[in-house]
Design goal:
The chain is mainly beta. Helix content is about 10%, strand content about 45%.
Length: about 450
């Protein structure tokens, strides 16, 4: 073989971010001039070079080239021992190349960065943060976490007080700030603190990297927010406005509707309905008043007179047979719908006609104005006795219940009369051409003759 090559040392230590040179001896033992080129093999090839890249030697001569190691200061190059080889390849001779081998040891380095997320927090009971620690060195790293509070009114704790991080990786630990006492109301209180990330230090030596100090704040808010008094005052004002609206507008309208429903005809009809069916009149309950008895003077006893004989008791008269009882009242209901056009006069409809030999006692009336028409509606019973007189624009559904029934005699009718002034329009429906009102009544029907 006409080529020999050897390294000055079989192993070398390289510091990341610096250059380390290892000499390589090359000898041409052939009989012709030869040129050689160099190739680095192994994991360190990306950051290892040979200078010069080519070398020409005369027969029997030798020279030295420099193998330069430049490991980057980056977590991608792990610390530790790495084998390598340098291939010396002749360019003109087709003989096999020579590959001297060695080992390069990458020295470890430590670089730590940390971040507090978020830098500031706020809350009523506690503040929540996260400490993110990045290992930018080329060896596994274990760091300790500590905290310093700027005041004596807050306690700081970590979920993990120690983190082990691989090269090029990040680890997280939660940091919680809890105030010593609660703040019920007033201005928020700001608590300052510091989180310290400290790499380990061998005993009696300085740490491999300086500690990282992170500043943070926690704002303690009051339990009762500032806007609560204003909201209570606004709610009180709103309640007063609603009360005034009720007493000033709605309550008088309700009273007015109730007064309109009570007419002289209704009172007269109710009075007629409570009279005695037999036509008797007199005192309370239709009973005839009993005349007051006049006291009779008693004569003094005569001693010479004989005692009067005791009167014999007369037999009590037999009670007369009572009159025939009437059949029970039958619940009865009826309804009618009346339509009327604008400007065409009024329209009437009969809801109920009382047959001969019977009487109807009216107890309930329901009037409906589903379209929201404007005008008047009059409900009459018997021979034109007016029971209700209402304005259509004041209601949609109105019901009336009478404690004392209104008596409608045989042959009487219950009639509703509608006078349309303006046709209403229901929501999401086509406009009708005429006013339309409904009357529903209820009561009992009873035979008056046995």
């Amino acid at each position: 073989m006409s080529l020999t090559a050897s390294l000055d040392a079989s192993s070398v230590t390289a510091v990341p971010g610096e250059e380390t040179i290892l000499p390589l001896q090359v000898r041409n033992s052939g009989s012709t001039v030869e040129e050689y080129r160099f190739e680095v093999a192994g994991a360190c090839a990306a950051w290892t070079t040979v200078e010069p890249a080519t070398l020409s030697l005369y027969p029997g001569s030798a020279d030295t080239v420099s193998v330069t190691f430049r490991p980057p200061r980056d977590p991608s190059v792990p610390a530790g021992e790495t084998p390598f080889g340098v291939r010396v390849v002749p360019t003109s001779d087709h003989s096999e190349p020579v590959v001297p081998e060695g080992k390069v040891t990458v020295a470890p380095f430590t670089e730590v960065t940390a971040e507090l997320v978020p830098r500031g927090s706020h809350g009523v009971r506690r503040g929540a943060h996260k400490v993110a620690v990045d290992n930018r060195g080329n060896a596994p790293l274990t760091v300790g976490l500590a905290a310093r509070s700027g005041t004596d009114h807050a306690r700081i704790s970590f979920t993990q007080a120690e983190l082990t991080i691989e090269p090029g990786r990040a680890a997280f630990s939660e940091l919680r700030v809890k105030p010593g006492r609660r703040l019920w109301r007033g201005t928020p209180v700001v608590h300052t603190f510091q989180a310290v990330v400290a790499p380990p230090a061998p005993e009696g030596e300085e740490p491999a990297a300086p500690p990282v100090v992170l500043d943070g704040t926690y704002q303690q808010d009051a339990l009762l927010p500032r806007w609560l008094p204003r909201a209570l005052a606004l709610a009180l004002v709103l309640a007063l406005v609603l009360a005034g609206f009720w007493y000033g507008l709605l309550r008088p309208a309700v009273k007015s509707a109730a007064r309109e429903a009570i007419t002289p005809e209704v009172i007269a009809s109710a009075t007629t309905g409570t009279g005695d069916p037999g036509g008797q009149s007199g005192g309370v309950g239709g009973a005839t008043p009993t005349p007051t008895a006049t006291p009779t003077p008693i004569a003094p006893p005569n001693p010479s007179s004989k005692p009067a004989p005791k009167p014999t008791a007369k037999p009590k008269p037999k009670p007369k047979p009572s009159a025939k009882t009437l059949p029970p009242a039958v619940p009865t209901s009826a309804q009618v719908q009346v339509r009327d056009g604008v400007g065409g006069g009024s329209s009437s409809g009969t809801a109920l006609s009382v047959p001969d030999g019977q009487a109807f006692r009216l107890t309930d009336i329901v009037v409906q104005n589903p379209q929201g028409d404007a005008g008047t509606v009059v409900v009459t019973v018997g021979e034109g006795s007016r029971v209700l007189s209402l304005a259509l624009e004041n209601f949609r559904d109105s019901d009336y219940h009478f404690v004392t029934p209104i008596l409608v005699p045989a042959g009487g009718q219950v009639t509703m009369t509608v006078t349309c002034r303006k046709v209403g329009r229901p929501v999401n429906a086509p406009a009708p051409s005429r006013c339309a009102e409904s009357l529903f009544l209820g009561g009992t029907m009873q035979t008056t003759k046995p």
